[in-house]
Design brief:
Two copies of one chain form a homodimer.
Chain A lengths: L6 H16 L6 H8 L13 H24 L4 H18 L1 H6 L6 H6 L2 H12 L8 H21 L10 H18 L6
Helix pairs in contact in A: 1-2, 1-3, 3-4, 3-7, 4-8, 7-8, 8-9
Chain B binds a DNA duplex (30 and 30 nucleotides) through α2.
Organism (chains A, B): Allonocardiopsis opalescens
GO molecular function (chains A, B): DNA-binding transcription factor activity; transcription cis-regulatory region binding
Pfam family, one (chains A, B): TetR_C_33
DNA sequence: ATGATTTGCCTAATTATATTAGGACGGATT
DNA sequence: AATCCGTCCTAATATAATTAGGCAAATCAT
């Protein structure tokens, strides 16, 4: 449905920008129409419904995020790869909070499978190659890393860290250091 | 505003149950009114607006979660405490997905400060007593654990793990084991 | 060129939700 | 009995989602 370069793309872009400005949860068809200077119903020539609008932003975010992560990973391995990947992730979330939130929007299975979502776990697996983990530990580690990155970024974005003086950057470095250590030294369990 | 045992409580309960059933993001004043068998405007005698309705559910969730976590922590220390706490957290999320989502709802600073939110970080700090971490590592570790727990649960709930056969329970156990190891063996950096 | 098609919009209208204003009603209080 | 208070209601407005049906400029095919 989304033809590259077409009006559908402009629509998605406008929605993504809007999401970054007002928050993904407040993204509405009306608001996007307003921003584009057209009437609400006009958008239905390009999207099925509000859900698709959100899904489009989600897909865009997943791709952009995957692209950045891939670039960060290029030529790196081990700890370097881990840090670069994680930083790309966190950097994107801070720069595009609305899009980042969108990337967690629940897509229907088919759409999700065709999205850049799988690339994310593949890249995480690629990072783990530098840590020599046997299956199923590797799968557990993929989930661990994905959860740790997302959880930290999510808490930081929601302001959970503002109550304590400690710099989020410093904690982030500590976390990455700890993750690297854990993956490097933790004995495989293969349970 | 919320008087214990009053109608306000029933309202909050109804909203929480509804959130668990249809998802926190779909919680509306209308839906709650419908469930209570009253007209929409009637609810405004009890709440300020839709935002307060959500905030009420968030506060309830934070309290219930803190209570469970506290119970899980009672009499435990070290690894046992870590696992019990984490399981309480994950168990609540699976049992009450709507409430759990509500617990991440952004409250205004004052409300957040008066909520059970602080208890959560205090309890996490309590767990870390068993790991002998100096500040500011302890603060970093609190953020690490909070993020890791939330991130994993969040990904699991959103179905991110369904694509891979590996049991979520097994990965969870691996994660907790790894966290315990990292906190126990990781040299303090105090950076 | 030119009629057919496509594309992108629009107006009108419906439904659901959020919210305000103002009033009715029963029980509790003085 | 006069007054409050808590709870609910009807009426009304604004915003958002969405459908139906129509208009015009751009594009294509012949």
């Amino acid at each position: 449905m989304a033809r590259a370069g077409g009006a559908g793309e402009r629509l998605t872009l406008a929605a993504a920008e809007l999401a970054d400005e007002i928050g993904f949860d407040r993204l509405t068809v009306s608001a996007v129409a307003r921003r584009l200077g057209v009437k609400d119903p006009s958008l239905y020539a390009h999207i099925e419904n509000a859900r698709e609008l959100k899904a489009r932003v989600a897909l865009l975010a997943l791709e952009e995020l995957a692209d950045r992560a891939a670039a960060a990973l290029a030529g790196r391995a081990g700890r370097d790869a881990l840090v670069a990947f994680a930083d790309a992730y966190r950097g994107y979330a801070k720069q595009h909070p609305g899009r980042y939130a969108a990337s967690r929007y629940e897509l229907d299975p088919q759409t999700a499978a065709a999205s850049a979502g799988p690339r994310h776990s593949e890249m995480t697996r690629a990072i783990l190659r530098g840590y020599d983990l046997p299956e199923p530990d590797q799968t557990d580690a993929v989930r661990f890393l994905g959860g740790a990155f997302h959880g930290f970024v999510s808490l930081e974005l929601s302001g959970s860290f503002r109550h304590t003086p400690r710099e989020a950057d410093a904690s982030w470095a500590w976390v990455l250091d700890t993750l690297d250590f854990a993956l490097r030294k933790h004995p495989a369990r293969t349970a």
